[in-house]
Predict the structure.
Amino acid sequence: MTPGEDPRDLARLPIRELRERAQQPERSRNDLGGALFGDWVSPFLTRAFLRHDVSPTVGTFGMLIAGLAGALLLPFGGGWSVAGALCFVLFYVLDCVDGEVARLRGIDRYFWSFPDFFFGAWVMALFHVSLGIYAFRFTESPWMLLAGTALALALLTKKFIDVCHVFLTVEQIVTADATKRARYATQLGVDPADAPVPPAEPAILTSRRQVIARYGGAVGVVRAALANFHLAMLCFAVLAILDLMIGPWRIAETPLDLKTLFLLLYLPLYLLHVADHFVFLWRGGFAARSAALLRRLARWNA
């Protein structure tokens, strides 16, 4: 927001212009869920927030409330599960909205990245636990509880995989004594005695098409879409609605519906997704990311 610009004036912008102004600064950090869904839906709610001068903090805590409501409603089945699924979709939309409103109003603050990170992790893990409880109540099989718990743990593991190079580099190298710091930096190919090597700057992504292209060809996009939590929530909401109209079935004396099948199919898919990321780190990705972070920190302090 430019100085003196009223949020209500921003609310009068065409959706397309509002979308670009709100999302362009963060597009390089966007994922497939944002490019295919969030970017298209969130500006409508963002405009409502601006029009009525609603604080982005309402969006931040609203996403947590929506996620908790979804986790409480889902296990009851039927229409309650549909309402719960829609709450999880709303959770993601609000996750987009709070950042957009803060950026447009020029009041985004570093502190809010802290609750935003944890609220997101809690809600996504709770969805899987809640789905496991639903499937257990529906099938009376304790294995369903185990499946939901395994999915929650896999998701939290993926969260740690994505950021472990950051906190481990800071803890084990940046804040270590000089001898250990020099030894570990050398192992990563970063000589602390040399001038820092400027890292290659990430390409500035200006369009959703570029975000999608980052995942490679059609196979890569499909794999990423199948493993994306927010796109999975859209799929789950559709399945919850279909469950009101068709099924359930019995297979080998076990009752099944679409929501339960979602759990059984999504579990191996997501476990493979997490394993793929873990293998990437094991085969050099962890060291490469840590070395790049060290060089960036060195340049920051230069």
In short: Residues 195-200 have pLDDT under 50 and may be disordered. Strands lie at 249-251, 254-256.
